[in-house]
Amino acid sequence: MITLTIDGVRVQAEEGETVLEVAKKAGVRIPTLCYLEGLSPRGACRLCLVEVRNWGGRLVPSCATPVQEGMDVVANSPRLKELRRTILEMLFAERNHICAFCVSNGHCELQDLAMELGMDHVRLPYRWPLLPLDLSHAKYGLDHNRCVLCGRCVEACSEVEGAMTLGFSGRGVFTLVEADLGDPWGKSPTCTGCGKCVQGCPTGALFEKGKATSEQVKRPQILAEVTERRPRA
Amino acid sequence: MRKLRVATVWFSGCSGCHMSFLDLDERLLEFAERAELVFSPIVDVKEFPEDVDVVLIEGAVGNTAHLRELLEIRTKAKILVAFGDCAVTGNVPSLRNPLPREEVLATVYGTVDPPGLEEGEVPKFLPQALPLHAVVPVDYFLPGCPPSAERIWKFLRPVLLGQRPELSGADIKLG
Ligand code: SF4
Ligand code: SF4
Ligand code: SF4
Ligand code: FES
Questions:
Q1: How far apart are CA A124 and CA A39, in angstroms?
Q2: Range of the domain at B87
Q3: Which ipTM score applies to this complex?
Q4: pLDDT above 70 for B118
Q5: B127 CA: distance to closest CA in chain A (Å)
Q6: Structural contact between residues B89 and B43, judged by C-beta atoms closer than 8 angstroms
Q7: Has residue B172 been placed in a domain?
Q8: Measuring CA to CA, which residue among A223, A231, A226 is closest to residue A39?
């Protein structure tokens, strides 16, 4: 057993658990975006940053940081609130998020985070990049305008479905999710059409064709349900 | 008690935010008790007046007239409110922002230089539709496409009573 403190409260944890998992059990809310139960933590979005007081105030992503004996974790503070809001604003400024015009309006984790973190406007200048849509797949669509590069689709495809269709191309803000080596998704010989990537996607970047906005409700929890039922190695 | 001098302005937006304002229904009576609407698309006044206490601006800054008016309004109004998503983020008018302005003009008018549109009476199209705060300091943001009458009232009522409005959670939902 490991003992640590989260927001001043002493908690016990098992070796190998992450700060986020322990915080969740202790009822402490930490916002997350790229983290999804059932997938490996990537530490990609940084929204789950916490401060470790006795590590000189270092900021670490709680979803990807294993607990250590005696850690003194700050999960919620004005500083963290401001940092998280700024990170969120970067995500909104990076691509084209026009919620009124989006398939995921009302069912979007990014939009929910904006409400939770008090983001009533984006203080950073918008980039307004020109980005394509891939509508070649028979059942699903991919709209790069709404993608936050969280990687949940890529992991769902490789770790859960085992198809390894999806990956990233490019770097930095120019990174794109793509099927196989950049071919249209609909032409992919590896995609099984399972839809796990779509269910795992937190935003309107991946969506089901032929469904209205009001029906476009995702079930990201199915990825954990599927992996839990698997026999452990 | 002196009535609050309130103005509403319509830039590059669909007028949905103003429709939502009219949806205040019977609350408009309480509004009229405490405030005077000194300038608005629904008031026949041509010049933006001096000494406005609160201005609600709907729409993005889409052309040179909006730009000029916004700069003038900022000097004449004490509290400037970005009213609805187009004013807050650029929203639907900003759908054109990734495309070059010339391409948009050519697609819509068949020419990059439509007569009258680039000079004289008709204001010039800006290269991109901007949220208000990209041009002037904004005091409050009232998101929503459109913000519901309930949300508008949650914001406006404290303002009418001289209090600070505090919107959070579901009341700042975009879209
Ligand atoms: S993906 Fe979410 S945040 Fe982005 S436009 Fe769609 S609803 Fe809004
Ligand atoms: S539908 Fe399934 S196989 Fe195809 S890209 Fe998505 S997760 Fe991979
Ligand atoms: S498509 Fe969706 S799940 Fe994949 S990286 Fe983009 S936002 Fe994340
Ligand atoms: S949720 Fe931890 S970095 Fe994204």
A1: 31
A2: 4-166
A3: 0.94
A4: no
A5: 12
A6: no
A7: no
A8: A223
User: In the A/B pair of chains, how many CB contacts fall below 8 A?
Assistant: 74
Q: How far apart are CA A174 and CA A163, in angstroms?
A: 24
Number of domains chain A contains? 2
Structural domain including A137 reads: 101-229
> Which CA distances in Å does A204 have to A50, A127, A157, A161?
27, 19, 17, 21
| B103, part of any domain | yes
At position A93, the amino acid (one-letter code) is A
Residue A193 structure tokens = 């059409």
HEC letters along chain A: CEEEEECCEEEEECCCCEHHHHHHHCCCCCCCCCCCCCCCCCCCCCCCEEEEHHHCCEEEEHHHCECCCCCEEECCCHHHHHHHHHHHHHHHHHCCCCHHHCCCCCCCHHHHHHHHCCCCCCCCCCCCCCCCEECCCCCEEEEHHHCCCCCHHHHHHHHHHCCCCEEEECCHHHCEEEECCCECHHHCCCCCCCCHHHHHCCCCCEEECCCCHHHCCCCCCHHHHHHHCCCCC
pLDDT for B112 equals: 84
Domain with residue A29: its CATH number is: 3.10.20.740
CATH of the domain at B24: 3.40.50.700
Which of A39, A42, A110 should be mutated for ligand 4, with most atoms under 8 A from CB? Answer: A42
Cβ of A100 within 8 Å of Cβ of B88? The answer is no
- Residue A136 sits in the same domain as residue A67: no
Output phi, psi for A73, to 5 deg. -100, 130
Task: Compare CB distances from B82 to A100, A101, A121 and report the shortest one's residue.
Answer: A121
Number of domains forming the structure of chain B:
1
Amino acid residing at A29:
R
What is the pTM assigned to this prediction? Answer: 0.96
- The segments of chain A whose pLDDT lies below 70 read 232-233
Task: Tell me the pLDDT tens digit for each residue of A83-133.
Answer: 999 999 999 999 999 999 999 999 999 999 999 999 999 999 999 999 999
And the tokens for A71? 């850690």
Taking CA–CA distances from A98, the nearest residue in chain B reads: B91
Smallest Cα distance from B154 to chain A, Å: 15
Tokens of B11: 């830039």
